[in-house]
Write a structure and sequence with these properties.
single chain; 7 helices; mainly alpha
Length: 151
């Protein structure tokens, strides 16, 4: 849903949007922000500092890019990045993981890796079933998936 908007707008390279230029400048800004914050936070927070710096830089720069896309296209920020839709996906993912937990109790001690694989597969199946049953995937999304898998 939102993937096509972001892809078409930010990466199109259309002259009015200068998508490539925005991405280049935001990447440089992120690099500088991570470097400076990592050094400062390393002094303050120790080894956790650089990790915190990456999170802050990613959030800040990506928010600025999304605001830029919003302004240039005239779309609201909610249209560029639909928070409600993403929140529903998060709730479905957490619920799928929680519903799959009993599978771990049904599996004998076959090794941690295989227990994790069974749990993951169950979670993925539940997630897919819930998303499909709630009609959160449309025909455009399915066509995009088919095109990606054909490559």
């Amino acid at each position: 849903m939102f993937d096509s908007i972001a892809h078409d707008v930010a990466l199109s390279g259309d002259a009015p949007l200068n998508g490539s230029r925005v991405i280049m400048y935001s990447s440089i800004a992120m690099l500088l922000m991570i470097a400076s914050l990592s050094w400062a936070f390393l002094q303050t927070f120790g080894l956790w500092g650089p990790a915190l710096a990456v999170v802050i830089a990613e959030y800040s720069i990506n928010s600025a890019v999304l605001l830029n896309i919003s302004k240039r296209t005239g779309l609201s920020f909610a249209k560029v990045l639909p928070w409600g839709y993403l929140f529903r996906l998060l709730v479905i993912a957490v619920a799928s993981g929680a519903l799959a937990l009993p599978v771990l109790g049904l599996i004998p001690e076959i090794g941690l890796f295989w227990r994790f694989m069974c749990y993951s597969l169950t979670t993925i199946i539940l997630y897919g079933a819930i998303v499909l049953s709630l009609s959160m995937v449309n025909s455009d999304d399915l066509a995009l998936l088919r095109a990606k898998f054909r490559r």
